Amino acid sequence: MNICIPKERRDSEYRVGLTPAAVRLLHDAGHTCYIEHEAGLGSGFSDYDYQQAGGQIVYSGEEIYGRADFLIKVARPTQIEFDWMREGQIVAGFLHLAAGQSQKIEMLLEKKITAIGMEIIQDEDGTLPVMTPVSQAGGRMVAQVAATLSQNNFGGKGILLGGVPGVPPAEVVILGGGTAGNAAARNFLGLGAAIYVLDRNLEVLRDLDRRFDGRVVTMVSHPFNIARVCRFADVLVGAVLIPGARAPILVSREMVKSMRPRSVIIDLSIDQGGCIETSRPTTHSNPTYVEEEVVHYCVPNMTGVLGRTATHALNNASWPFIRLIAEIGLENALELKPSLKHGLFTHQGEILHERLQDSLKGRV
User: Most buried residue among 37, 68, 109, 195 by CB atoms closer than 10 A?
Assistant: First the structure.
């Protein structure tokens, strides 16, 4: 099988689909691995590292896509990458198709591309084995981003998240108590902030209460509770995820208007469309904007600037699925691994994921 690792083309995306160690394992198993020139540079891997692992370097995106039976990416392909894809290929990555453009999905169907969304591979117990480490990294990163944006020189109100003796800490509100919300709460607590976590699942809230020994205030995410916490939040984090579907809007513009000037919003759900009405995608090159006097940070590939850490975390989680597809072929892998079957967005010209189908029905 020709397994290809393209260079990521989105702004400030430093992650790469496979490490040299993974390339070595695939090469030793008899597969041919092509790596686009400097694809691993942001993660600390040189072309020489890949060559030493048995990989072959190619020097254009068009060639890397043209050679591939199996493309392993990180971020959702750009328009030019969709144009380069050829019929019958397998493409795996964090595709977030529910938040993408309809015409790109149509291209996948026309070319009969098998699109595997790493973010929707799901075990029988509901866990997301590949998405989990990325959510953990993003959640842990939120606290350091919020601390920076709360400074005056980054547009914030000039507060220290943990306060000092005689000055109270910042009040941080996290919408969603899943993997990302949990990781965010842990790091905000480490900085000394006062934390409020809202979720619709009472068992999730009970687990958070046990996990943090009652140091986190938990609330059910009814609209009136969300409206209430918005009025006093110094930092508001959106960490809502419905696998494969567009994120629901939980915070209205009116709620944002009620926030105190120069408060900070970080919408981690922006890769799935965002859970805050005033959110719109930004980039690491220009990560923030001010709407309703509130600083917004809405970078879809937030962990893209953690090239080394995020790439290793991603490879640890995705490797069992990649190895299986390479070893026994896609169809056999789908039969053997039900969790991989859950990760199919499109296959043989059809949309297989119900939530993607539902999201397309709702578009004009």
Answer: 195
Q: Phi/psi at 67 (nearest 5 deg)?
A: -85, -20
CB 4 within 8 A of CB 89: no
Give the model's pLDDT for residue 363: 53
347 carries an active-site annotation = no
Place of tokens 């990521």: 8
| H or E element that contains 307 | helix 307-328
Catalytic residue selected from 27, 96, 296, 342? 96
Pick the CATH number of 131-304 from 3.40.50.10160, 3.90.1510.10, 3.40.50.720, 3.90.1150.10: 3.40.50.720
312 is catalytic: no
Question: Over the range 149-163, which residues count as b (16 or more CB within 10 Å of their CB) and which as e?
Answer: bbeeebbbbebebbe
Angle between helices 179-191 and 202-211 (to 10 degrees): 30
pTM value? 0.93
What ranges do the domains of the chain cover?
2-121+307-361, 131-304
**Fold for domain 2-121+307-361?**
Rossmann fold (3.40.50)
pLDDT tens-digit map of 54-90: 999 999 999 999 999 999 999 999 999 999 999 999 9
pLDDT recorded at residue 267: 98
What single DSSP character describes residue 251? Answer: B
Q: Are 180 and 204 in contact (CB under 8 A)?
A: no
Question: What is the structure's pLDDT at 362?
Answer: 57
For residues 29 and 41, what is the distance between their CA atoms, to the nearest angstrom?
25
Residue of 199, 234, 267, 271 with catalytic role: 271
Please report the pLDDT score of residue 364 as a whole number.
44
Task: State the burial class of residue 164 (Cβ atoms within 10 Å of its Cβ: 0-12, 13-18, 19+).
Answer: exposed
Give the span between the Cα atoms of 279 and 238, in whole angstroms: 10
Q: Which residues pair with 294 in a beta bridge?
A: 291
Domain pair 2-121+307-361 / 131-304, same fold: yes
